Amino acid sequence: MPEQGTDRRHTRRRFLTTTGVAGTALLAGCVGGDDDGDDNTGDSDTDDGDTGDSDTGDGDTTEDTTTTVEWVLNPAEENIEPTVQYAPLFEYLESEADIELDTIRAASYSGTVQQLRRAGDGDEVYADVSPGAVAQIPDEIDVTGVRVAFGSDKYFSLITTTTDSGIEELADLEGETVATAGQTSVSGSLFPLLMMSNAGLDIGNAPVGSPNDFEVRQSDHFTARQQLVEEDNIAAAGTGAFSTAPHVPQEQFDEMSDDFAEISSEYDGAGEREPQLNLLAVSEPIPRAPIVSNAAWGGELKDEIRELMINAPDEAFQHESQAAIAEELGIDPSVLDKDEEELTDSEQADVNLIEDHELWFSGVEPATPEDYEPISTLGNELGLNFADL
């Protein structure tokens, strides 16, 4: 990423509580059974997650009339601190609009959905969500736009295995254990299930229940990949391509999916990381995840924030430098000055973590619920009622 100078823009953003490297708050009422990353909080009826204090519809304000807007952060990978990753965009919004962002890191995809379900009149909430949320809570949200990654508004789901697993095709997964992301993850759960079903495996009533021909272990995209690499009893992993494509050689994508090679933003970096994984399946292109707001909130400020995102300059999606990211993560920036062959395994892991905290999308483009109809079609193919998830 390009340098933007050493003077960082001042930000008024405050965090609800400090936890982890950048100080985020786990979404109250959505932790429950999700401490391990499982998406099993859909029935939570606690009220602790309600944070709107105003009954006027104008939002909380500080003494300088700055309006406080909540931003719920969707957890995709356990190792990513989203407030670090999203810092450029948040700083841009706060510098251009008279707002202060309170960030809330949800404990699960369903936790993000629950926060949006609870938001009513007087609440001002933006959120980044899984594509499935558009089908899950269409009446509770307005779609702000689709996040675009370096020209592509589509992404992919992959099923991968280790090079020594003996698994050569999806049919070989019968009787095995497959690591996946959370229950409602489109790329990390729903599409992997569809691909395995199309390969002749009996998925039972998954993801709500258990498959008949194999077992599923749910967590998040990062943990699923980690379990595949580290645990012998995990035969494959279903994840978004952003998690596993860096471990799959490009030629495997060339052989399996013309779409991936042509439009995936992950293709250029495919195969650059160790250990190598083998590709078992690639999904059809999936609409990238949207940014949404709660539908009960109306007014000029909501529209202003939306327009700021859609018309944002490139710099709004770029960190000052990788060194700045390293400092935010508590990593010695000097590791970035070393040649790859000079890095220890631990230092290489630090470099990977720094790279993974660069903001994964490069713009926001206008979108509507109709753009996410393929997700509803996916649900129908799996026999799902999204409202029940």
Feature tags:
389 residues, alpha/beta, D-Maltodextrin-Binding Protein, domain 2, 8-stranded mixed sheet, 5-stranded mixed sheet, 13 helices, 15 strands, globular, disordered N terminus
Describe the 3D structure.
The structure is a single chain. The chain has 389 residues and is of the alpha/beta class. The protein has 2 domains: 14-150 and 288-319 and 357-382, Periplasmic binding protein-like II (D-Maltodextrin-Binding Protein, domain 2), CATH 3.40.190.10; 154-287, Periplasmic binding protein-like II (D-Maltodextrin-Binding Protein, domain 2, 3-Layer(aba) Sandwich). The chain is built from 13 helices and 15 strands. It has helices spanning 82-85, 87-96, 109-118, 132-136, 186-198, 221-230, 241-244, 250-256, 258-263, 300-310, 322-329, 345-356, 373-382, and strands at 14-15, 60-61, 67-73, 99-105, 125-128, 141-148, 154-155, 157-162, 177-180, 215-218, 234-240, 277-282, 286-287, 290-294, 363-365. Strands 1, 2, 3, 4, 5, 6, 14 and 15 form an 8-stranded mixed sheet that branches. A hairpin with a 5-residue loop joins strand 2 and strand 3. Helix 5 packs across helix 13 (373-382). Residues 1-58 have low confidence and may be disordered.
